[in-house]
């Protein structure tokens, strides 16, 4: 027996409420983030990730209060992503009780930011979030590129090369989202997940596309991910975290039960 | 009211550990301090830390806290966590070799490169996530914590004590390494009890009631 594979529920938070956008259109309200985080903790979540999708700058303090409240009663690792652009943003989240921050577009805009952040706060709290989309045609060897702005803006950067570069710059973990699969409930992009996981020495969290419990297990077994992240299948109580873990265990995956 | 001092020397965020200590033992006064007097006055001391060992030792020396921690280690319950544990060894091979506090005789070493699990997959460094802690001795800090409970880890270096008798627990990644040390009134853990849910809070509660005797 050894290290358990992690299940990480993700809460998309907009103005202090948990929402789940299906392909960013139909945004459904899923409730109070503190209440939901408490439930996930009770059900055995290994970590919790908050993704702040609040559009207006004025309302960004809301996520800080959410993290503060959750951190004073939930004692598992907490990650906050969304809108992390400066060292000061990171400090604010860590002071609120986050253990890690997710950096996405700010890393694409300025890779040095990841290096500075890792030097200042330590690699253990720097998660680089990568949104990747397949760009190769059928019949060609698979190739994925980094996209920003919710998958709308191509950057021309190769996803595998980018993941390696981010680790060199000090990322302690990679949160990998397939923009082709996000919101589809068709399962992770397994070849992408595996390619990134085998390319980097740090843990990789698979994200984007989970629709059932087998998808989670596939991400670990075939995608070689170290952790799996999902949002909607947990929010609307289709499955509990515990059910997900028992299912993964039944497929031979080591989990914390 | 009994008190616990959490040493604040700029290495990482103390929010979690303070909240977890308050939660585990609401009757205890928890203070974050960086001066010798406050540390020496407290009934118990927690020595946390994340980051690199060179920065850690530099910060301790600048604040004049190295001697203070060595003094605490001879006099009252002391809990080292993560980098705080590593700093209690004699030296670490991180940053090209750094002399540490030598409360525990031994070294801090990096996980070997290219580790594989039993299926031949490469093991990731840092060792990050929930792993089993195998208790090697009876100790007041293990009270009410089931054998092989999972705690949350995140680290790339680990302690190698010279004296096996002070090993309090091991964890496998993929070989067994020492994840807890116990010697007189000092206990140290590589994992993060403040992030290890119920078992972590239990360990902190045990520490808050520990009189420093094994």
UniProtKB/TrEMBL annotation, chain A:
The keyword Cytoplasm applies. It is an enzyme of class 4 (lyase). It is found in: Cytoplasm. The keyword Cytoplasm applies. GO terms for biological process: L-histidine biosynthetic process. It holds the Pfam family His_biosynth. SUPFAM superfamilies: Ribulose-phoshate binding barrel. It comes from the Bacteria. Keywords: Amino-acid biosynthesis, Cytoplasm, Histidine biosynthesis, Isomerase, Lyase. Its main location: cytoplasm. GO terms for cellular component: cytoplasm. Pathway: Amino-acid biosynthesis; L-histidine biosynthesis; L-histidine from 5-phospho-alpha-D-ribose 1-diphosphate: step 5/9. It catalyses: 5-[(5-phospho-1-deoxy-D-ribulos-1-ylimino)methylamino]-1-(5-phospho-beta-D-ribosyl)imidazole-4-carboxamide + L-glutamine = D-erythro-1-(imidazol-4-yl)glycerol 3-phosphate + 5-amino-1-(5-phospho-beta-D-ribosyl)imidazole-4-carboxamide + L-glutamate + H(+). The active site is at 12, 131. Its EC number is 4.3.2.10. GO terms for molecular function: imidazoleglycerol-phosphate synthase activity; isomerase activity; lyase activity. InterPro entries: Aldolase_TIM, His_biosynth, HisF, IGPS_HisA/HisF, RibuloseP-bd_barrel. Belongs to the HisA/HisF family. IGPS catalyzes the conversion of PRFAR and glutamine to IGP, AICAR and glutamate. The HisF subunit catalyzes the cyclization activity that produces IGP and AICAR from PRFAR using the ammonia provided by the HisH subunit. NCBIfam families: hisF (TIGR00735). Heterodimer of HisH and HisF. This is Imidazole glycerol phosphate synthase subunit HisF. It comes from Methylobacter tundripaludum (strain ATCC BAA-1195 / DSM 17260 / SV96).
TrEMBL record, chain B:
This is Imidazole glycerol phosphate synthase subunit HisH. IGPS catalyzes the conversion of PRFAR and glutamine to IGP, AICAR and glutamate. The HisH subunit catalyzes the hydrolysis of glutamine to glutamate and ammonia as part of the synthesis of IGP and AICAR. The resulting ammonia molecule is channeled to the active site of HisF. It catalyses: L-glutamine + H2O = L-glutamate + NH4(+); 5-[(5-phospho-1-deoxy-D-ribulos-1-ylimino)methylamino]-1-(5-phospho-beta-D-ribosyl)imidazole-4-carboxamide + L-glutamine = D-erythro-1-(imidazol-4-yl)glycerol 3-phosphate + 5-amino-1-(5-phospho-beta-D-ribosyl)imidazole-4-carboxamide + L-glutamate + H(+). It comes from Methylobacter tundripaludum (strain ATCC BAA-1195 / DSM 17260 / SV96). One of its GO terms (molecular function) is glutaminase activity. The active site is at 82 (nucleophile), 192, 194. InterPro entries: Class_I_gatase-like, GATASE, Imidazole-glycPsynth_HisH. Its EC number is 4.3.2.10, 3.5.1.2. GO terms for cellular component: cytoplasm. It comes from the Bacteria. Keywords: Amino-acid biosynthesis, Cytoplasm, Glutamine amidotransferase, Histidine biosynthesis, Hydrolase, Lyase. The keyword Lyase applies. It is found in: Cytoplasm. Heterodimer of HisH and HisF. GO terms for biological process: L-histidine biosynthetic process. Residues 6-208 form the Glutamine amidotransferase domain. Its main location: cytoplasm. Pathway: Amino-acid biosynthesis; L-histidine biosynthesis; L-histidine from 5-phospho-alpha-D-ribose 1-diphosphate: step 5/9.
